[in-house]
Specification:
The complex is a heterodimer of chains A (112) and B (116). With 112 residues, chain A is an all-beta fold. In chain A, 0% of the residues lie in helices and 56% in strands. In chain A, the strands form two sheets. In chain A, strands 2, 4, 5, 9, 10 and 11 form a six-stranded mixed beta sheet that branches. In chain A, 33% of the residues are buried. Chain B has 116 residues and is mainly β. Helix content of chain B is 0%, strand content 50%. In chain B, strands 2, 4, 5, 6, 9, 10 and 11 form a seven-stranded mixed beta sheet that branches. Chain B has a four-stranded antiparallel beta sheet with strand order 1-3-8-7, with no helix packed on it. The model of chain B has no long low-confidence stretch (mean pLDDT 91). Classes of the chains: A mainly beta (112), B mainly beta (116). The A-B interface holds A 1, 6, 9, 32, 34, 36, 41-46, 49, 89, 93, 96-100, 102-105 and B 4, 31, 33, 35, 40-45, 48, 50, 59, 90, 92, 94, 96-99, 101, 103-105, 107-110.
């Protein structure tokens, strides 16, 4: 049962372009939405996160857009760089921040 | 600060063998997790422990057992390994019932397990 659907599965973007990864959820009990970045051979690490009472959060070149009514949120990477090449996971928290559901991941490749 | 440490990093098992993956965190977190990562499946929760002395099943618990030995350590045991358990396993930890940025889950670097 996949409660958080992530797309696309893979993405190739040219250096300097915008990378966009989308996630959709069904469970309205989710109340915290982080994105994780994972480099090959490493564990995932928190990149940026948003609460549902905010429609957008920006940290440097990374922005989360959140649409509560549509139950969708997305990660935008502006001015994408080869160093951004990694797998990105969206996630959703519920149950007093105890239970976390992850999306299936998006493998991003930024080509020079 | 080591964060979350997992051992072993790599392991090859024969079908039917047993083994234990070890995990320790030095951040004084109450919550600990075991995930498996498979291509196209993302991160799936095997078991979690909200606090010392408690464990709960996650999404894919069959074939696994866990032990929360103390606040720092959370081990994952495969009693009779099967090829379907070939995967990358991640241990993680988090503060309990915290809000805002303290919701961060910290992951170990993973354990690559192959069952032949």
């Amino acid at each position: 049962q996949q409660q958080v659907k992530q797309s696309p599965q893979s993405l190739i973007v040219q250096k300097g372009g915008i990378s966009i990864i989308n996630c959709a959820y069904e469970n309205t009990a989710f109340d915290y939405f982080p994105w994780y970045q994972q480099f090959p051979g490493k564990g995932p690490a928190l990149l940026i996160a948003i609460r549902p009472d905010v429609s957008e959060k920006k940290e440097g070149r990374f922005t989360i857009s959140f649409n509560k009514s549509a139950k969708q949120f997305s990660l935008h990477i502006m001015d994408s760089q080869p160093g951004d090449s990694a797998t990105y996971f969206c996630a959703a928290f519920s149950g007093g921040y105890q239970k976390v559901t992850f999306g299936t991941g998006t493998k991003l490749q930024v080509i020079p | 600060n080591a964060g979350v440490t997992q051992t072993p990093k790599f392991q090859v098992l024969k079908t039917g063998q047993s083994m234990t993956l070890q995990c320790a965190q030095d951040m004084n977190h109450n919550s600990m997790y075991w995930y498996r990562q498979d291509p196209g499946m993302g991160l799936r929760l095997i078991y979690y422990s909200a606090s010392e002395g408690t464990t709960d099943k996650g999404e894919v618990p069959n074939g696994y057992n866990v032990s929360r030995l103390n606040k720092r350590e959370f081990s994952l045991r495969l009693e009779s390994a099967a090829p379907s358990q070939t995967s990358v396993y991640f241990c993680a930890s988090k503060r309990t019932n915290s809000q805002g940025s303290r919701n961060t889950i910290y992951f170990g670097e993973g354990s690559w397990l192959t069952v032949v």
